[in-house]
Input
Amino acid sequence: MTVYPFQVIDRMAAAQASANKPLLQAEGVTLEYRTTERTVRATHRVSFNVYGGDRFVLLGPSGCGKSTLLKAVAGFIAPREGSIHLHGRPVLQPGPDRIVVFQEFDQLPPWKTVKQNVMFPLLASKRVGRREAEEHALHWLHKVGLDGFADAHPHTLSGGMKQRVAIARALAMQPDILLMDEPFAALDALTRRKMQEELQGLWEEVRFTLLFVTHSIEEALLVGNRILLLSRHPGQVRAELNSHQFGLNSAGSAEFQAATRRIHGMLFDDEDHEKQASPTTTALISQRQGK
Ligand SMILES: Nc1ncnc2c1ncn2[C@@H]1O[C@H](COP(=O)(O)OP(=O)(O)OP(=O)(O)O)[C@@H](O)[C@H]1O
Ligand SMILES: [Mg+2]
Output
């Protein structure tokens, strides 16, 4: 089996070397869907920076454009206004440097075994030969706790196990940034918590860079070290928060509950105010600066 520590060390060194430079920069990103009848604005001038090793969370109410933002970072949708850069280069199309894990359990081709699913993008991108792809696949399946399931087909797995395969498949590609769109939202509460823990464990080990979408405040605090709060549709930045102080054991703490209430207030109470009077840009900026 291939030994991986060098890759991990390289990635950490690279992350440290570029610590001051954002890995991903979104600047004034407006995203729209256009049909013949109408144009739907999904996000309005959203800006944020993601640094190497960040667990950066996009948090906001349903319909605020989180998935659309993720699709734009993945290169599936071009911004109507603004720009997205990865390593200083504009994102113009999808690429193996950005891999997405979706919410849906059907993201794995059902005719391929678990191992073949993980090997597929490695082979398709011609990164490695078949033997090495198999070694990578088995390595990452081990990391996500699916040692005994390499030859199983997806329909024989639980939802949580399918998501583990999708995570193994994504990490096997060693993307510069892992994009996750509510990957645990369709799981029961216990499995969801377990998956959050496992993701945290993988991050501790591999230190990948993560852009994670959720509409759960608790999940954002548990998974993320930085959180971007987006307003209701069309999504605008309301605030950016640090959440590195919260780990998986802090869920019940008074500090955690206070943070949850504060975020809830920012997401929803302000919207009640908005119904009476629109917030000014100044208000949004000062909130973002934590004033
Ligand atoms: N293919 C599409 N065509 C037209 N409008 C779309 C399309 N996909 C999304 N939208 C609209 O864009 C807006 C943002 O949608 P998006 O799916 O990004 O929201 P979201 O924040 O991910 O919501 P949720 O939390 O429910 O997943 C919504 O108003 C939605 O109706
Ligand atoms: Mg979504």
